[in-house]
Amino acid sequence: MNDLAPLLTPEGRALLDEVRGTAPADELAVATRLRRDHPAPLVSAALAQARLRQRAVAKFGAEDAHRMFFTPDGVEQSTRASVAAYRAARLKELGVTSVADLCCGIGGDAIALARAGIRVLAVDRDPATAATARANADALGLGGLIEVREADVTQVDTSNHDAVFVDPARRGGRGRIFDPEAYSPPLSWAVAAARTARIAALKIAPGVPHEAVPADAEAEWISDHGDVKEAVLWFGTEPGAVRATLLPGPRALRGAGLPDPQVRPLGRYLYEPDGAVIRAHLVADVAADLDGGLLDATIAYVTADTLRPTPYATAYEITDQLPFNVKKLKALLRERGVGVLTVKKRGSAVEPEELRRKVKPQGPNAATVFLTRVAGAPTMLIGAPAAV
User: Mean of the pLDDT values across residues 111-127?
Assistant: First the structure.
């Protein structure tokens, strides 16, 4: 049921309130009961929307998610509210008062922009998606700042807006799209559209090759609580700059163009850089700040002799270094009474769950094992998070 209109009626809204929080195991009984007094398609639509709202809580928070409307693709592809709020705040700081939000989806970014006091033209060519974005603007009391337009973004005049934000579709019928020119619209069109505005932000996949970043763009990789969420190409800010931004915070690491760190022997501490730092190719900047080096030229683990606080990496104190050998690891963990085992890997084909099954950790203590390479050799490092 793609038409939201029935859910926006008093009857539809009352049904949404009634089915809120329905557990999957209870859906059949709830649907059977409600269909005695309401049309079956409307009951099905309300239950489907309730499921989508429950999924959306992780991105939008409970208060907003249970007031908003979603499509299955919209929940999957929408920007996390914390990331959208950060980007809206940055645009506000750049003096932006109006944004053309192209490929707006269900309106997550438009909502964040409007809450920052920015006027938004939100455009999407899919009728159901545009209708959902409009319903969300109204549901959150932001209809006065958000104009939703159902249109082909390539045909929209954005000249009367301070900034352009473009979020091309990166999923197709077969799943995630990795070729930027296969985005909808293609990355080349989005870049051209971004260049028409005083300020522009272009959301792209965090795995985009650095060589695909235009020379006149600033490239920013954003993580939220350690999970890399997206990359953004900024136009009209700092051409050529590279930045890793960590949320909450925000904390921003701006690249200094340093050469790759030297490979050195294992020190007392191992630092695991945040994913945004790694994606932005700024491990060298973190290593320089820690007076550290790499364990292996191809692995993004930094080692150092001293413990220093940094928001851009997690520190571990290493107690043991062993060549990769499951039997030796099992014996060591048994000797130490390790029952809670965290397995991290980088540069190893061994799966963490497979290793856990083989070593069968038992005991009251905890440890972290890193499966990695040291100077090219498969290695196991055992330690624990360091108290900074």
Answer: 97
